[in-house]
């Protein structure tokens, strides 16, 4: 009986289950360890340690994976990695042959040297970050859109017989609203493109690009548990055909995913997996051209350095970070762009940045008040961030944490500019005592003087949650907007 | 609005019917007491019993104020006990299904839970669905201000609507009661309704025409409305107002709050449009103590 498909399915199911639990469930507390896969990820551990020159304490679990790789090699890749499993299943639909590239080691070196310079790029290629981000920001919204469209279409036409099924899906498998993400097309296409590559060659990403696979591969080269070929081997090459890395019988353990397909294919039953007996060879080492290594390291340093030099829009109006975010420089060193905060965000206000935070900030979380607002009594983003880029705040701390300040544009505000009654902003302001007050005043309009309630900001109370901007009826350019000026994490004194 | 004015209004209301006698106008029942369930039942009985409105097999929508993530003591939402009592009364009268719903202003998962209404209503036997953006249908409102607007689909399909608002202060509308509460049955962008709020509310009142209005004044939000948030803004009044005439109930609610009905623009607009009676002299007021 083959155990591996069951184990893979179990890990993938666990991963998807945890992703589903990364959601508001009625209390301001995530009860499942939803980011546990990331906390076991040694690539993220090393990369964040290098960029911050500190060890993120929550991530020490990853050292167990290092230990496991030293003994079991790339068993994680073959048995547990959820992206690996998806790659493998997609690869079965194609007819390609497996192979491997040393490129992934060079990418690993480049990413780590970028990290040393403070550019935290590992999240772009780390399989767990990539999968969480792509599913949360592209595929789950797509699933929600299609499912809702189907059931709501039927409901509108009066077909109610499928309602119980819809209620089940709503309760268990669908997010409350269909989330809309500004980069869904981009992220979704990249992800589906990545999966499509498997049709040409199975586990394309795993064997050629994955930096985590490369890291585990480097740790694997002396692993005692490995593939062994007995004397019965007659070098017929049947084992290379199903191997996702395209390995010959004596292939390097750094490329071996321990999937066992070679063992099934061998007509002489010469292949087995286990601990080495005396006399067995160590196997091929990873051979990298020295020139390639130097290019990778140097390239990483240069690229990382240039990215850091590229003027970050510190004066940018649009860069409002989630409450609990560290000051920008350290934030960028820690954020691995995994998308957990975006997934869990109650209102969908947290979105992946495109240019707002400069090139170093691509896909880091920024608040877009056209899509949502920061729910007053909510601390979920800090609870799920695996690296501490967003600190975990208590509720008492959070409601006092200013992420920006609102300001009213009197030329666009309906009461101020046109004498038309509104006050939606004041109505929704959640701060006790309100950060927006209504002042009765006279406004000149073409029809004459009108008496109307005018919103006036009390900046000392405003925490920048953005519900005012979100609800403002002047949607295209809201008459009240939140900008990062005054954000607490800068630590600058304010005049109020 | 100070406490003294407020306390003055209540006894005046209680003597009023004795001074004027019940008139031929719309009946409004004011129930004062401590036990919410008993108050609701007594009030319904005084109006002729729920069976006068709800027939066996009817689908009923009980529409509370369930808009803000505030606990019941903060009086930003309808008292969950009032909602539960109504749900039970409808089911006892033979309703096939009772739905409790509001298009909340904040995340409905927080509001439905925090208000206590979803749990109480479900325990009483109601279905309490969340607002699903895909379940609002664009319909012709044929109002003065609203021509076409998105309306929650189930509201179009039920047989009976029982409007179950709370009496509270509102920074724009002055007071929010029954007519304002109907905003929770329509889709966004509701902020635009604020531009001509009184007319828009009359349009909604004319479109939905709830068969019964149960105005919860067990706890009243005196200021800081509609969200509230400070327990010192709340007064325990222990009153429930009921009637079939939505303008009349709102008018009585205004008096209870310490205002004259003419001081609440939506009441004036509703009366002017012929949706109901705001003149207290013509309202058939019945008061009960339970």
| Sheet with the most strands, sense and barrel status of chain A | 2 strands, antiparallel
Quote the distance from N terminus to C terminus of chain B.
28 Å
Classify the oligomer. heterodimer
User: Which value, in Å, is the CA radius of gyration of chain A?
Assistant: 27 Å
- In percent terms, what proportion of residues of chain B is strand? 15-25%
Biggest protein-protein contact in the assembly:
A-B, 36 and 28 residues
Order of helices and strands of chain A: HHHHHHHHHHHHHEHEHHHEEHHEHHEEHE
Number of strands of chain A: 8
Strand proportion of chain A: 5-15%
Q: Give the strand order, joined by hyphens, for the main sheet of chain A.
A: 1-2
For the termini of chain A, the CA-CA separation is 71 Å
The string of secondary-structure elements of chain B, in order, is HEHEHEHHEEHEEEHHEEHHE
Structural classification of chain B: alpha/beta
Describe this structure in words.
The complex is a heterodimer of chains A (496) and B (290). Chain A has 22 helices and eight strands. Chain A is elongated, with a radius of gyration of 27 Å. Chain A has helices at residues 4-21, 36-39, 42-52, 62-72, 75-80, 82-92, 103-116, 122-125, 127-156, 163-172, 184-197, 204-208, 211-220, 261-265, 290-309, 328-334, 340-344, 380-384, 395-398, 414-418, 424-428, 467-471; strands spanning 226-229, 271-274, 350-352, 365-367, 405-408, 436-445, 448-457, 480-483. By secondary structure, chain A is mainly alpha-helical. The mean pLDDT of chain A is 91. Chain B has helices at residues 3-20, 36-46, 80-92, 108-114, 117-124, 153-157, 178-181, 197-208, 246-257, 265-272; strands at 27-32, 59-64, 97-100, 136-140, 148-152, 160-164, 166-170, 174-176, 212-221, 234-243, 284-289. In chain B, strands 1, 2, 3, 6, 7, 8, 9, 10 and 11 form a nine-stranded mixed β-sheet that branches. In chain B, α3 links the parallel β2 (59-64) and β3. In chain B, α2 (36-46) packs across α3, α3 (80-92) runs parallel beside α5 and α8 packs across α10 (265-272). Chain B is globular, with a radius of gyration of 17 Å. Chain B starts with a helix and ends with a strand. The model of chain B has no long low-confidence stretch (mean pLDDT 91). Chains A and B meet through α9 and α21 of A and α4 of B.
